[in-house]
Amino acid sequence: MPYSRILLKLSGEALGGEQGYGFDPATLDSIARGIADGVNLGVQMGIVVGGGNIFRGQDSAIASDRVNADQMGMLATYINALALKGSFERLGMKCTALGAVGVPGVVDRFNAGAARSLLAEGHVVVFAGGTGSPYFTTDTAAALRALEIRADSLVKATKVNGVYDRDPVKHADAVFFEELDYDQVLGLNLKVMDLTAISLCRDNGLEVRVINIREPENLVKLLRGEKIGSVVTARRESG
After folding, report:
1. Is there a contact between 23 and 49 (Cβ–Cβ < 8 Å)?
2. Domain region containing 115
3. How much is the pLDDT for 238?
4. What does the alpha-carbon distance between residue 111 and residue 148 come to, in Å, rounded to a whole number?
């Protein structure tokens, strides 16, 4: 197996299925089963989940400012973390949710050492609350948590098959990139993750994989070493 531990970044919208908001039970179950199959291969799984299926910060009629919006978004990730936890537990898996800010009686506060111990004991660990601070995206939280748990790779789950030069859903002639380095991502302004997240991965040599989560078997294929999606590394591989 090429990986022993990964950090999976899930958008909140992924939990909403085709509609992209709220929860779609069939989609939630499908994602959980795909992750469970990966765990059954012996790969330790940490997950950072977004909150966009519940709240996104563009609506100024709801959020008073960016800080207020980001705080609402962070709270939404706790609901998503608990939804994922319930899905895993229904499959008979051990799962623990940890938050950047603890919610006594609901979610314990994140601690890197505790998270690594839980992963080693076979728990799926879902990280909620982003970084705990406004102005940082869940992409940055995913990069940070991946480094803190010493993951072999950060796997970003999307609705497309990898990295393109533009949205392939809107542009049929979009160019697919199978392999890239961080400087290409930054120089071409590719929307893999935000600038802070990519810079954090580059500066610490963390591999980033981008796969289509709408095909749950993709995760298992990736973990088995198959060429799935796109990979971003410090130096573009040749051959």
Report:
1. no
2. 5-233
3. 46
4. 9
Mean pLDDT, the chain, integer? 93
pLDDT band at 235 (very low <50, low <70, confident <90, very high): low
User: What local confidence, expressed as pLDDT, does residue 60 receive?
Assistant: 66
Number of domains into which the chain is organized: 1
Q: Nearest-CA neighbor of 14 among 98, 68, 84? A: 84
C-alpha to C-alpha distance for 239 and 221, rounded to whole angstroms: 21
Helices (H), the chain: 25-40, 66-90, 112-120, 138-148, 182-187, 195-204, 217-223
The four Cα atoms 102, 104, 106, 109 give a dihedral, to 10 degrees, of 20
Please tell me the predicted confidence (pLDDT) of residue 239. 42
**Token digits for 200?**
């954090």
CATH code for the domain of 101: 3.40.1160.10
